[in-house]
């Protein structure tokens, strides 16, 4: 499914719609360059899960945890990881066992370790416009905006 958004708020709205339907144990693999809108999408996803506090990029921490919604949200940045083995070294299996939602930025660096993710590809079309493609995982036909 492909959507076009024309502002960070619309990107967040799409993320929120996905957050309303994701199930425990869902892995979301992001693809998109710097400034594409991955964190904006995650802010919306967190809101859709019922999380109300601030959501920020995990660029320097590798993972941010957001608790307090209907499911825990674990937001990973794999930019600095060089192989899927590095993912296991940071405790990936422990996060999966917690049955929350794992969002993975720069997922292409660890794609071999991600089983059946929802892939969110964000292409920058202009200053604020984005083409966002959602594939795989749960039945995305249930997604309503």
Strand content: 15-25%
Ends distance: 13 Å
Query: What's the story with the biggest beta sheet?
Result: 7 strands, mixed
CATH top-level class: Alpha Beta
Please indicate the count of domains.
Answer: 1
Task: Assign the CATH superfamily.
Answer: P-loop containing nucleotide triphosphate hydrolases
Report strand order across the widest sheet.
1-7-6-2-5-4-3
Share of residues in helices: 10-25%
Fold and architecture overview:
This protein is of the alpha/beta class and 145 residues long. It has a single domain (2-137), classed as P-loop containing nucleotide triphosphate hydrolases (Rossmann fold, 3-Layer(aba) Sandwich), CATH 3.40.50. The chain is 24% helix and 25% strand. The chain is built from 4 helices and 7 strands; from the N terminus they run βαβαββααβββ. The protein has helices at residues 8-19, 38-48, 84-89, 92-97; strands spanning 2-5, 27-31, 63-66, 73-77, 101-105, 118-124, 130-135. A 7-stranded mixed beta sheet has the order 1-7-6-2-5-4-3. Helix 1 crosses helix 2. The two termini are 13 Å apart. The model has no long low-confidence stretch (mean pLDDT 86).
